[in-house]
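DEPOSITED CHAIN:
***
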Amino acid sequence: MLNLTRENFIKARDYVFTHSDDINRAWFRYNFEDGDTNAFMDVLGRYQHDNGGFGGLAYEFEYQGPCLKCTEHAFRYIFYLKDKPPASHPVIQKMMKYILERYRPEIGSWGELLEPEVNDSAHVRWWTYGEDDNSPIADEGEQIKQYDPNGQAALAAFVALYSELVLEDLYKDIIRYPVEKILRYYDEVSPLFGKSSTDRANKWGIYSPYNLKCYQQFCDCLKDKPLAKKLKAILKQNPTLCMEMDESVWDHGYHEKPYNVVDTPDSFIYPVVKDVVDKSLDYEIRQQQADGAWHLNWRFGKGEAFDRLQAKGEAHYTMLTLAELNRFGRIEK
């Protein structure tokens, strides 16, 4: 089992502070210096707009205004805080208002996570506004079948985490879709197992890496622990289906490795895939470059605007890698 050496940790830290922005520097300080939730939330709040939505937290498009995608990124930070801010925190209050106002009960999710303005400037092709069909769906069974947890289940996780801020009927409606999607399409004993045609990013229709990542957060945030336990048992049945298990191809283009999907030892899935996650963490430590960064082996696009996005994205990825290695105790003290 490899650990990141102290020397290489310092190189990565210096890279983050030289090439990244305020939120990544604040995330470093939280993880490695003071662990101060209030101090981190003060910085996170600078990225929140008056309407409660966040901007500037996604590095795959230039648009800096509020959108649900960046708001989901804000939740990712909150999820990994050891001491969660209370429901009375003004950032949480405004964030919940923004999220609830944009929920669409006619489709059982939030639908489009971007704003039209994303298309007006540089953006990666996989984040383009208007590419998904978010038309109203009358039949509830079809709503559940069409439910795409990519990002959506993470927003539902935030609603579950701060459920005291949500009217009961609305809360039940929001969580019903991710719950039923797991029960109907992920459970091996269900007659519908594997038959959803909408989650199309990986080997099996329903298994995509980011879906499973969002579902882990959703289950952990549910206040109904018996229900959460049932869902977790189902998601532990086939977790490696959404992971690239062939190490020989990891160096070639975009692949979701085990540590990308299970990024904390606190995950309920980690005990099931511990060996492969640990092996992939060894691989990731070896991928650090001489400048201290972890550089992506795929490009956002061509041109100066994409070069800027790529640089910001790689500094962010370096910080996320440091935080993950720290959670797994993989940094030399």
User: Anything to note?
Assistant: Residues 199 and 323 are 29 Å apart (CA to CA). The mean pLDDT is 94. The longest helix spans residues 304-327.
